[in-house]
Amino acid sequence: MSPPSEVRVRIAPSPSGFLHVGTARTSIYNWLFARHHRGKFILRIEDTDLERSDPELVEVILEGLRWLGLNWDEQPYYQSKRFEVYPSYAEKLLQQGKAYHCYCSPELLKQKREEAIREKRSVKYDRHCLRLSEEEKKRLEAEAPPKAIRIKIPPGETSFHDLVYGDLSYDNADIDDLIIMRSDGRPTYNFACVVDDYEMKISHVIRGNDHIPNTYKQLLLYEALGITPPQFAHLPLSLGIDRSKISKRDGAVAITDYRQMGFLPEAMVNFLALLGWSPGDDRELMSTSELIEAFSLERVSQSNPVFDIEKLKWMNGEYIRSRDDNELVPLAAPFLIEAGLTTKLAVEIRWEYMKKVVGLLKGRCRLLTDFAELGRYFFTDKFDYEPEGVKKHFSSPECNPWLASLAERYSSLQKFDLQAIETSLRGLAEELGISAAKLIHPTRLATTGMTKGPSLFELLEVLGREEVVERLERAVDFIRGNPTPADKTDTG
Ligand code: GLU
Fold first, then answer.
1. Can you tell me the mean pLDDT for 458-487?
2. pLDDT digits over 258-284, tens only?
3. CA geometry: angle at 50 spanning 49 and 54, to 5°?
4. What is the DSSP letter of 166?
5. Domain range annotation of the chain
6. pLDDT surpassing 80 at residue 3
7. Which pLDDT score is estimated for 487?
8. pLDDT, the chain, mean
9. Host H or E run for residue 171
10. DSSP assigned state of 5
């Protein structure tokens, strides 16, 4: 396939209050295609449904696109600001006899549909208004009832070459004379879409395959208007995210929910790009520029990919790990603040400390929320000891004198650095005639409340001598059966 001289694609969301993750994926494909071909990515807000549209809802969508880094070219277009554009196109079709006025009221149409369903007949419009005599039309015009405009679907077959699904065709007999302009003067989706794609010089329409039925209708509109249609590429829907298929188990529907869950935008883009497309080799982690370089519609698959949140989490973990500590601090901070572990100011003041904390934890985090989950002890000593750990590591009678000795050693160290921390613990274990592990496990539990975590010596160095000694002494008290309730916060 050779792309036309200028690639212009668009994403045309309807403002519904959030950016659906399926729409986000469609946006990514359009954006990658545009960037690959050095073309334009146009944003068009389909807000002709005035009752349901609200500038705040639009802002949520723009925010989602911005978060993903999908920058659009030109100013966003709003269909609601283009109401004066559509009637002239409809007028042309009326004059050429390719469209007709329909005076049937919504109630009458509903009644006819229900009748047809009851009698198992086609629910297509019966063309009542197409058959009106000139006299009847005159009489109706004099009464001036609300009137819509319908396109007259010609007999035959509508075919096109889909860039993903190949040659497709449909019998026009199964297509309704659809309304193109409502009685209140607003265009319907299919009509506005055709007029806008034409006026905005869209070269490729890339959208979900649930729009294939609309594509036939739109092609008939292009034909009636005598204008050249763009090329079409329909994307397989992803099971788990599209339309009603979403369930909490799969994740969420709104892209902003993923942000709140602790996903990074570049992981989302990478994951969603691979949901129905592959680069042709087994690469999975791909930077945005690699995606742009490799993207092609030929490699979009026809089958429905499954949205696997576990894979997304794995990918997110990889992105977290590859981030520089300095960049990770501002990303992790909102989640630590939300968990009540620190404050904006404390983060700024203790930037170096924060850098060390995220650096130590990042290897174990799959979500940004994990920093709060796994790193609580860096910010407070108000934590309980894991009960399993207590059973395993605090129960031997010698454990207490061991921890007490370690606390003493650490207090008297000249310098509390990584090497000294490790050497003195190992030295003590040797003197006691025990393996270092026998001391390492209770020390971890005493200082973090947890049985697992990053390198013990490194985390002790980050916590600092005073905090470590205090926590060891507190554990000694606890083991003695005299737990001292901790009341310090934000020790980090
Ligand atoms: N507003 C439509 C939607 O959100 C746009 C479909 C299209 O891309 O033509 O589904």
1. 87
2. 999 999 999 999 999 999 999 999 999
3. 110
4. E
5. 1-78+236-322, 86-181, 323-378, 387-479
6. no
7. 45
8. 93
9. strand 166-171
10. S
* CA-wise closest residue to 479 among 443, 434, 453, 433: 443
Pairing of strands 73-78, 40-45: parallel
pLDDT at 191 over 50: yes
Cα 272 to Cα 308: distance, rounded to the nearest angstrom: 10
- Residue 392 bears catalytic tag: no
- Nearest alpha carbon to residue 461 among 352, 336, 322: 352
Count the Cβ atoms, other than its own, within 10 Å of residue 126: 15
Residue 17: per-residue pLDDT: 77
Helix (H, G, I), strand (E, B) or coil at 373: helix
Phi, psi of 117 (to 5 degrees): -65, -45
3-state secondary structure of 238: coil
Task: Look at the chain and count its residues.
Answer: 492
Bridge partners, 205 (sequence order): 232
Q: 86-181 — its CATH code?
A: 3.90.800.10
Task: Please list every protein residue whose CB sits less than 6 Å from any atom of ligand 1.
Answer: 12-14, 46, 193, 207, 211
- The two tokens of residue 329 are 């601090």
Q: Atom 5, ligand 1: which residue's CA is nearest?
A: 12
Q: Separation of 482 CA from ligand 1 center, angstroms?
A: 65
Side chain identity at residue 309, one-letter code: I
DSSP 306: B
Helix (H) or strand (E) holding 467: helix 465-479
Looking at residue 351, its amino acid is W
Give the whole-angstrom CA distance, residue 207 versus residue 46. 14
Q: Are 117 and 123 in contact (CB under 8 A)?
A: yes
Ligand 1 atom having least distance to the Cα of 205: 8
Q: pTM score, two decimals? A: 0.91
CA 385/CA 450 separation, integer angstroms? 6
> What tens digit of pLDDT does each residue of 49-76 get?
877 777 888 999 999 999 999 999 999 9
AA letter at 300: V
Query: 387-479, what's its fold?
Result: Arc Repressor Mutant, subunit A (1.10.10)
Q: At what angle do helices 325-338 and 351-361 cross, to 10 degrees?
A: 90
Ligand 1 atom closest to 10 (CA): 8
CATH of domain 1-78+236-322: 3.40.50.620
Annotated catalytic residue within 248, 313, 344, 391: 248
- 414 Cβ neighbours under 8 A, 6+ residues apart: 420
Judge whether 275 and 305 are in contact, CB under 8 Å: yes
Q: Provide the β-strand partners of residue 306.
A: 239
**Residue 450 pLDDT > 80:** yes
Class of domain 323-378: mainly alpha
